[in-house]
Design goal:
The complex is a heterodimer of chains A (327) and B (240). With 327 residues, chain A is mainly α. Chain A is built from 16 helices and no strands. Mean pLDDT of chain A is 74; it is low at 155-189. Classes of the chains: A mainly alpha (327), B alpha+beta (240). Chains A and B meet through helix 1, helix 9, helix 10 and helix 15 of A and helix 1, helix 2, helix 3, helix 4 and helix 5 of B.
């Protein structure tokens, strides 16, 4: 019985701490959806593959969305003719490189500032490298799902094509931007009183969907902490290699949103190596089970396997270096 | 769903149970979130009353592992569970599971202000442990007066005439609470001589002098207790 009580206390402590950040996340993602027109930003994107990937990664500062929100945005970028390096860089880095996630990570790991900085650095590095690799494929269309590929504006034509034809794509309903039509048919004019209710509506919707994942993630974290014997966790969490692999698998399975995943990781901070915590924080936002469903709405399986393998290897190597040489 | 969570978070605030869950620096976040959630719930209700169901916009879909309805009901159920359940601060079982140390790991909380001028008898357990971290030679503190409060742990590897007096330290929320403690030797006069007189999880004020004892081949700073008094559990059991 005290076991249950401890697990519940832990669970609610995680929930109460993560909820404000989840709220902030859905607020900004909804505001972005209703207020920002990403087409203008695209025109300013550099064309060089390396710079493009870097810029795509830093794009997250303007689009503070977690990994659930960034796939639809990346998809819109692709369809509107963004270079592949920009889109892939954005896809991988945006969930981590954004002010809300940075604040949440800082809150959780106040005592270990290195975790915060290394998380940012590694995410940007990996995203840039992979974006660069993908840019060798100048025309991404063979790697995309047919519905998306058909909608892509070939790199040579004007960026200012109307975006409405993406709605014709085989009636796919995976992205909220398609079915809601909000992003396309934004209310004309700057009438705040029309837009604010839309923002709140979208917040409610996202909160409902993402909150469930948060509940599951926190529950797993607290049960593992209380239920699994300490020496098992310790033996797994102290090895420089095993701890990283364990945390990466956990990150992929738990699929917790990047706005709140630092609190999840925090609950393992006393038993796992800091390299493995970093692996969780870097790899989780890039690829996880929940995300694969979303990614499949854009890329073909082959491209996702490339993404997955590249991201996993880079994360593993970088965090292993941290474990062996830094901490 | 939102109203339940809003009420839950405000309940933690009003009842003061929030101190069991969060570091005080972050309580305002949770309190604000509670208010925002309630406001969103009210907004939803007002919208629903004004609009007929037919005129509402088509439902948006957002791919996620859980089907839409599931996620909402899960949140609702958990919120109700939270309203029913009263959180409890951690006790010695968690402390033993996590391992009590008199060493604050280097990566963990660094002392924000290191005050040497503080009188030894004013130091709390946490301050003692931090001091010990900076200068770990136990003999340095020999004979200094001690007056600390905390809860009792009976670690199985300590002899019967020792116990640990401990506190949990929080850096963010209860998920990262970790225990620190100092051994107490119970051989002084007027003490019961063995720890069975001081049950685990009870709170005590321990007065005495510092000394060095060899416990399990390990030289450790130990409180040679002269006076142990039972106290109420403080309203905020954690230290920061």
């Amino acid at each position: 019985m005290p076991q249950w009580s401890n697990a519940l206390t832990l669970f609610f402590s995680l929930m109460v701490e993560a909820m404000p950040f989840l709220l902030l996340g859905v607020l900004s993602s909804s505001a972005l959806l209703i207020f920002v027109d990403e087409r203008r930003l695209l025109e300013a994107m550099p064309r060089h593959p390396f710079l493009g990937a870097l810029a795509g990664g830093l794009f997250g500062f303007l689009f503070p969305v977690c990994e659930c929100g960034n796939v639809p945005v990346a998809r819109r970028l692709l369809v509107k003719g963004a270079p592949s390096s920009v889109a892939v860089g954005f896809l991988l880095a945006a969930p981590t490189i954004n002010p809300i996630v940075m604040w949440a990570t800082w809150t959780a790991f106040r005592d270990q500032p290195s975790v915060v900085f290394l998380r940012l650095g590694f995410s940007l590095f990996i995203a840039t490298i992979i974006g660069w690799v993908f840019s060798s494929q100048v025309d991404l269309r063979p790697m995309l799902q047919p519905a998306v590929a058909n909608a892509v504006v070939p790199p040579s034509t004007s960026l200012l094509q109307s975006g409405t034809f993406m709605l014709g794509g085989k009636g796919q309903t995976l992205s909220r931007f398609d079915t809601s039509g909000v992003a396309v048919a934004r209310p004309a004019g700057g009438d705040l009183w029309v837009r604010i209710p839309l923002v709140v509506e979208n917040m409610v919707q996202e909160l409902r969907e993402l909150g469930g994942m948060l509940v599951l993630g926190s529950a797993i974290a607290s049960i593992v902490q209380v239920g699994v014997p300490r020496d098992v966790i310790l033996s797994l969490g102290q090895g420089p290699v095993t701890s990283i692999i364990a945390m990466m698998i956990l990150a992929a399975v738990v699929s917790i949103c990047s706005t709140v995943d630092s609190f999840f990781a925090l609950s393992f901070a006393s038993t796992f190596t800091s390299g493995s915590l970093l692996a969780f924080l870097v790899f989780g936002p890039m690829i996880d089970v929940k995300n694969i469903g979303l990614l499949l709405s854009v890329f073909k399986g082959r491209a996702i396997v490339y993404l997955f393998v590249l991201a996993a290897q880079l994360t593993f190597l970088l965090t292993l270096v941290v474990n062996l040489y830094i901490s | 769903m939102m109203s339940v969570w809003g009420i839950l978070m405000l309940k933690y605030w009003v009842s003061g149970q929030i101190v069991y869950l969060l570091h005080p620096d972050y309580m305002w976040l949770s309190n604000t979130a509670g208010i925002v959630l309630l406001a969103m719930a009210i907004f939803k209700v007002m919208r629903r009353m004004r609009m007929s169901p037919l005129s509402s916009r088509p439902k948006m879909q957002h791919a996620s592992l859980l089907p839409q309805g599931w996620s909402t009901s899960l949140l609702l159920l958990v919120g109700l569970l939270g309203l029913w359940y009263t959180p409890r601060p951690f006790a010695s079982d968690i402390a033993l599971q996590r391992g009590v140390t008199d060493v604050v790991a280097v990566t963990r909380s660094q002392p924000q202000a290191f005050r040497v001028s503080i009188k030894p008898e004013d130091k709390s357990i946490v301050e003692w442990v931090r001091t010990l971290n900076v200068y770990p030679e136990p003999d340095e503190y020999k004979g200094q007066a001690v007056d600390v409060s905390g809860f009792v742990i009976h670690p199985p590897n300590l002899p019967e005439n020792y116990m640990l007096i401990s506190r949990f330290i929080l850096t963010c929320c209860a998920a990262d609470a970790y225990p620190v403690g100092l051994p107490v030797k119970l051989d002084g006069e007027a003490l019961k001589g063995d720890r069975s007189g001081y049950p685990a999880d009870e709170w005590f004020q321990v007065k005495g002098r510092m000394g060095t004892e060899t416990i399990n081949d390990d030289r450790r700073l130990t409180i040679l207790a002269t006076e142990i008094e039972s106290i109420e559990e403080p309203r905020n059991p954690y230290d920061y």
